[in-house]
Amino acid sequence: MSEATDTVITVERRDVTGSSMAGKLRREGKIPAVVYGGDKETMAITVDHRTLQDLLRQEGGENTIFLLKLAGTKQERRAMIRDIQIDPITRKYKHVDFIRVTRGQKLTVSVHLELTGDSVGVRHGGLCNFKSRELDVEVLPREMLDRIIVDVSELDLGEHIRVKDLEDKLPPSGKFMEDPERIVVSIEIPRSSAEAEAEEAAADMVFGEQSEPELIGRSKDDEAGD
């Protein structure tokens, strides 16, 4: 469960928008944001940078449900983070989308996957390929997930776990918003050194059979005639 209703995040209304104002806010330690959903109008707001960091450090991370309070008013509403934009160079927060949480209304969230267990296939020399580290799940707020534990203990060489194999780990209201056949983790058989050498030899033969291009020019007889 990722609900922390004792956590209160106080935000301020943002009346002036635009890139120049957004840059000014970031320099002041505030992050431009919006809150939407819950059959209410979208509101431009700002959230303190440190407050956002503290929220993300909680066990539920981005999926934590908290009480969002508008400074200077009595307005407050349960909410959660819907999206965070991060600068690819500085890695600082650029913008945050909050979504109002309504009881009885399902939300779609990204749930992190965590592997556990000592795979049989890995003990036999296989390689564990963790293909999907998070999956989108539709779920009621009261049954929000922090993570899904994926046990790979019984996976042998060449075996895998698909999305549909994890359905029993969801709460009653949960539903994966992914292709059921999508592979989450697999135990791959490593290529032997002999197979690798055989592939390299075959490639060398293909390139070796290619003759050098014929140069078009005068023959030796022509040169002798000159």
How would you summarize what this structure contains?
Helix content is 19%, strand content 39%.
What can you see in these coordinates?
By secondary structure, the protein is of the alpha+beta class. The protein folds into 2 domains: 3-102, Ribosomal Protein L25, Chain P (Beta Barrel), CATH 2.40.240; 108-188, Ribosomal protein L25, C-terminal domain (RNA Polymerase Alpha Subunit, Chain A, domain 2, Beta Complex). The protein contains 5 helices and 13 strands. The chain has a 6-stranded mixed barrel with strand order 1-3-2-6-5-4. Strands 10-7-9-12 form a 4-stranded mixed sheet, with no helix packed on it. A 3-stranded antiparallel sheet has the order 8-13-11, with no helix packed on it. 19% of the residues are buried.
How is this fold's topology laid out?
Blueprint: E1 3-13, H1 19-27, E2 30-37, E3 40-48, H2 49-56, E4 65-70, E5 76-86, E6 93-100, E7 107-116, H3 120-123, E8 127-130, E9 134-139, E10 147-151, E11 160-162, E12 175-176, E13 183-188, H4 193-209, H5 220-225
Parallel strand pairs: 1-4, 2-6, 7-10
Antiparallel strand pairs: 1-3, 2-3, 4-5, 5-6, 7-9, 8-13, 9-12, 11-13
Low-confidence stretches: none
User: How many domains comprise the coordinates?
Assistant: 2
What kind of oligomer do you see?
Answer: single chain
Proportion in helices: 10-25%
**Tally of helical segments:** 5
Mean pLDDT metric: 85
**CATH level-3 fold name of the largest domain:** Ribosomal Protein L25, Chain P
Class based on secondary structure composition and strand pairing? alpha+beta
Spell the H/E element sequence: EHEEHEEEEHEEEEEEHH
Q: How is the main sheet built?
A: 6 strands, mixed, barrel
CATH architecture of the largest domain: Beta Barrel
Radius of gyration: 28 Å
What would the principal axes of the Cα set say about the shape? elongated
Distance between the termini: 93 Å
Strand content: 35-45%
Please name the fourth-level CATH homologous superfamily of the largest domain: Ribosomal Protein L25, Chain P
**Strand order across the biggest sheet?**
1-3-2-6-5-4
CATH class of the largest domain: Mainly Beta
DSSP summary, beta strand count: 13
